[in-house]
Amino acid sequence: MKYGEEFQVLRQIDKRKWILIVVLVAITHLFCQTLMLPYESADNGDTGEDGENVEGVNGEHEVKLDSNHSDGKALDNDSDFVEDATIENDNLFDEDADTGEETTIQNGGNQVQKNDESRRGLSLEQVVKPNGELSADSELEANRSSTRFDTKTTSATNLTSVIASKHIDPLSLVTLGLNESNNVRTARKKSSTGDLTQLLPNHRNHSLVQMDITVSSNGSPVKKKMRCMMPPKTITSISQMERLLVRHRARSRAMRPRWSSERDQEILAARLQIENAPLLRNDRELYAPAFRNVSMFKRSYELMERILKVYVYKDGEKPIFHTPIMKGLYASEGWFMKLMEGNNKFIVKDPRKAHLFYLPFSSRMLEHSLYVRNSHNRTNLRQYLKEYSEKIAAKYRFWNRTGGADHFLVACHDWAPYETRHHMEHCIKALCNADVTAGFKIGRDVSLPETYVRSARNPLRDLGGKPPSQRKILAFYAGNMHGYLRPILLEHWKDKDPDMEIFGPMPTGVASKMNYIQHMKSSKFCICPKGYEVNSPRVVEAIFYECVPVIISDNFVPPFFEVLNWEAFSLIIAEKDIPNLKSILVAIPEKKYLDMQLAVRKVQRHFLWHAKPAKFDLFHMTLHSIWYNRVFQTKAR
């Protein structure tokens, strides 16, 4: 009897241990799932601009991205500038940046009357046009807003019963996780906001978007700040980025190929020639001050034109694959896809002759085709690309030879870093969302310029600006209040100084697309603050209108960082220095400004799309940076 009782006690103890172990495993699993969710500022919106007309590869057909709120008109949004509309919980994930209905801006943008629930607001550029078109910034930032709520997907899914029983709007549970996890995250955010927290203004519109709604243990709604509405926890300065570039050039992290290839030997021979390039003096084609090393760039570009061969996978079904978007915010990935697939100079049909392999998918069409509206779950998008890469690896031997290191993708949607994580981790990624704290690898990945194309048939429309002597405006910005940074900018400079023309959405008196363009053409400096993400089409837009860009976006890797010297034609200012913005600008000597403005005009050619690619244009610069990074990452067998 005595032994039997002891055995029963032992069994009860063992059962408790097992229960404890199972509970710990479950908690660990949930925690790991949370960590695997995407970076909270998930890129250009949840559903993107579902009202956008997308021109096909040759402009012969259109892919219409329909939505419940869209009338299907062509998108003419200017990503950052359209962001000051009141955001309502009902449509935070309905980001149709359709420009079909009128939007009226009142009182300098404090109130926005919307006929389209999905619209986020108007930007100067988009500002009310007779045909209802918007500027690109609005759509981009509107899209980004929805993604902020997307990162706690797993926990939200597990709480569907709470939604049903308490009749709580699913949006309020998007970022809901374990109560303990929420408390920890909130505490970390409060302790890591840095100096910028001191600058956060009590701006009414700002407060509307900075609140994330969750549910407390007693079922009552609790508001907390979203990660996208707080300064980054860590900051990598431009000088630190340059050191990372030098370090990664000297020591490649790429996988050593599993077997040798003639193509590797050609690349290694090209690297030797690039490193020993003859010194150029007064090159007639290139503006030397705008480059880190114009001699190396020129030699590398010549070698690319002479020997580079690219294989484009035919695998993949339309519209996610082989269907480029030719206008709007995602035009960069679309124009590259169209020009790459139609190129006879670089493309080879025999993959054995290729130095690089192109994965021709559209991150925008991936989102449009597969994302379930209001699901707040993008796992299926990443799974789709995972299965595609596995298919490529199983069907062809080339992926396995390098682990994908000689494969590349070009994606401008902000979700691309999340969608390509893990299964495409070793590929060269040309991304618009070039955030060094969100997985962007300096020296391997390429910062892709985000270009807003208003006319697919004439991407160079309105190109150029006034000469320096006729630029009477010191600094100009107009845009909506997406993210934590722009309200700070307006708090310090809106209506504070006649030399600083800093606006939210433009007042109705000057609310037209041409007014926005004329402001950029007439300004010395164009302010380019981040929105929800580090990237903004306004950087390229400033260059397009020959205005010196002033980039205010911590952790943003400027386009073509591996070859261009951005200090020659732009100002990069830390976010914490916004209160000193004017003093920084007026302290620039006139000669230096003239040199910078000249450099802007000289580099402009590198940021332009052409229906037929031109030497040193945006298509060739993108392909060159991919080639250039591969050259310095290649290892011998």
From TrEMBL:
Q: Which UniProt keywords apply?
A: Glycosyltransferase, Golgi apparatus, Membrane, Signal-anchor, Transferase, Transmembrane, Transmembrane helix
Put simply, this protein is called: Probable glycosyltransferase At5g03795 isoform X2
| Main location class | Golgi
Regions of compositional bias (Polar residues) in chain numbering: 102-113
Source organism of this protein record = Nicotiana sylvestris
Q: Name one GO cellular component term.
A: Golgi membrane
List all Acidic residues biased stretches: 92-101
| InterPro entries with a match to the protein in the record | Exostosin, Exostosin_GT47
Q: Does the record bear Isomerase in its keywords?
A: no
Membrane topology classification: Single-pass type II membrane protein
Pfam families noted in UniProt: Exostosin_GT47 (PF03016)
Domain Exostosin GT47: start-end pairs: 306-587
The UniProt entry's sequence similarity note says:
Belongs to the glycosyltransferase 47 family.
Record's subcellular location: Golgi apparatus membrane
GO MF, any single term: glycosyltransferase activity
Q: Which residues are listed as membrane-spanning?
A: 18-39
Q: Which PANTHER family match?
A: EXOSTOSIN FAMILY PROTEIN (PTHR11062:SF210), EXOSTOSIN HEPARAN SULFATE GLYCOSYLTRANSFERASE -RELATED (PTHR11062)
Segments for region (Disordered)? 92-121
